[in-house]
């Protein structure tokens, strides 16, 4: 999951550009720096909604188990998370094509908390011998080597592999290489269909959710919100959100293959046409806060799930009685991690990456 806040927009975060878009009057080469969208508050709300959906799907009972609603809610949340990741990473690279700086900032965002979590999980006997594959983010590839308590970290593997791939593309082809991403999205979806993989944790059967977000980013960059209006009613975004939930249900059949594009459509339509109350809700202070700590929420909730708080060794009733403690601990640790631990690494990454040539301080 791309999982970023503020000026670094990355699962699994606040959607903002790394700074004011410099103009041509400053003498900046347009191939290095292009005008950015600026902060899109709605994306904060989408990120908050996505992590809350994942937490609900993983931690709370949502209807009778035979309805499989937990899987649908969690998968829809992951689809939005990945869509936002592709969107925001593409925005970063549209603005600044310095690949070294891009990778430094991405790794400074993802690695510190992920590696800390993996190090803690490595003490579990069942996880011995699995650390290396997880540290290099290849554990989701067959044969899968995910850790107990770290099964959810497969999404970070998909994220990091996407970072490396898009960095190579832009390194070879420059900014124009980003326009290959829509074609890659369709190719991955075609591969999923051919392989009969409607839902998978293997990168080449899942990364179309990120690539669909990248495609949306390219469209939004070309047709700016505020400058273009979609001839659709505001409530259509709610219909798309419900459709995404349906397309995430294990019994959805062929509709599961459309999940990446429905997620991208829901996010995209909301930027151009959505009810006022919807914008207010998704742009609210609580939504921004949840978005800020979303990456830590995602990583930490799975790790705590294998502790006493997870209650895997007890019956269902007692397990759910412990859930308020688990959720409270997850939010508390995520707050501390985001503002006292991860923020220091993010700041270091920014210093090491530096600014684009000609960018204002």
Question: What would your notes on this structure say?
Answer:
The protein has one domain. The relative contact order is 0.18. The radius of gyration is 20 Å and the shape is globular. Helix 1 (41-59) runs antiparallel to helix 2 (69-95) and helix 2 (69-95) crosses helix 9. It has helices at 41-59, 69-95, 99-121, 131-135, 154-173, 181-195, 208-222, 236-247, 259-272, 276-282, 285-292, 294-304, 316-321, 323-353. It is an all-alpha fold. The model is unreliable at 5-35 (pLDDT under 50). The two termini are 30 Å apart.
Summary keywords:
single chain; globular; 361 residues; mainly alpha; 59% helix; transferase
Straight-line N-to-C gap:
30 Å
Give helix and strand order, one letter per element, not per position. HHHHHHHHHHHHHH
How does the major sheet shape up? Answer: none
As residue ranges, the low-confidence spans are 5-35
Topology readout:
Layout: H1 41-59, H2 69-95, H3 99-121, H4 131-135, H5 154-173, H6 181-195, H7 208-222, H8 236-247, H9 259-272, H10 276-282, H11 285-292, H12 294-304, H13 316-321, H14 323-353
Helix pairs in contact: 1-2, 1-11, 1-12, 2-7, 2-8, 2-9, 3-5, 3-12, 3-14, 6-7, 7-9, 8-9, 12-14
In short:
With 361 residues, the protein is mainly α. The protein has helices at residues 41-59, 69-95, 99-121, 131-135, 154-173, 181-195, 208-222, 236-247, 259-272, 276-282, 285-292, 294-304, 316-321, 323-353. It has one domain.
